[in-house]
């Protein structure tokens, strides 16, 4: 399953919502290391939740957030042209609305929200 990516490469769309892409300007080794850390932190969070360990869960959540900030998915935007961040907004209510509607296949208002199969 692939998700459509905005023409400028800044976001992908899931169920009609924009999600910020990772910074494409990161060095490959840095991106890979941050992605590995993100996955390890997510696993640690799951383990902590199953164990009912709230302190470990919060520590893992912090690790997830730090990795996402490092990847450019959260925090300050990675582009430099001054365009505002539309992360987590519905595509139809952003400057990407026309592009999103043009995806066609009836996804603009559907539950699938633009998923390309």
Written overview of the protein:
By secondary structure, this protein is mainly alpha-helical. It has 2 domains: 1-21 and 79-117, no CATH class; 27-72, no CATH class. The chain contains 3 helices and 2 strands; from the N terminus they run ββααα. A two-stranded antiparallel ribbon has the order 1-2. The longest helix is centred in the middle third of the chain and has 24 residues, at 28-51. It is globular, with a radius of gyration of 16 Å. The termini are close together. Residues 108-117 have low confidence and may be disordered.
Characteristics of this structure?
about 120 residues; mainly alpha; 2 domains; two-stranded antiparallel sheet; 3 helices; globular; disordered C terminus
Quick summary:
The chain has 117 residues and is mostly helical. The chain has three helices and two strands; from the N terminus they run ββααα. Helices cover 40% and strands 7% of the residues.
Topology:
Elements lengths: L10 E4 L2 E4 L7 H24 L2 H18 L25 H5 L16
Antiparallel strand pairs: 1-2
Helix pairs in contact: 1-2
């Amino acid at each position: 399953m692939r998700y459509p990516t905005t023409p400028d490469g800044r976001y992908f769309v899931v169920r009609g919502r924009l999600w910020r892409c990772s910074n494409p300007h990161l060095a490959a080794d840095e991106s890979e290391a941050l992605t590995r850390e993100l996955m390890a932190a997510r696993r640690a969070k799951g383990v902590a939740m199953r164990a009912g360990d709230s302190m470990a869960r919060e520590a893992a959540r912090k690790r997830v957030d730090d990795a996402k900030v490092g990847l450019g998915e959260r925090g300050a935007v990675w582009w430099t042209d001054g365009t505002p961040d539309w992360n987590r907004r519905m595509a139809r209510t952003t400057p990407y609305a026309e592009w999103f509607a043009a995806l066609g296949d009836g996804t603009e208002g559907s539950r699938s929200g633009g998923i390309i199969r």
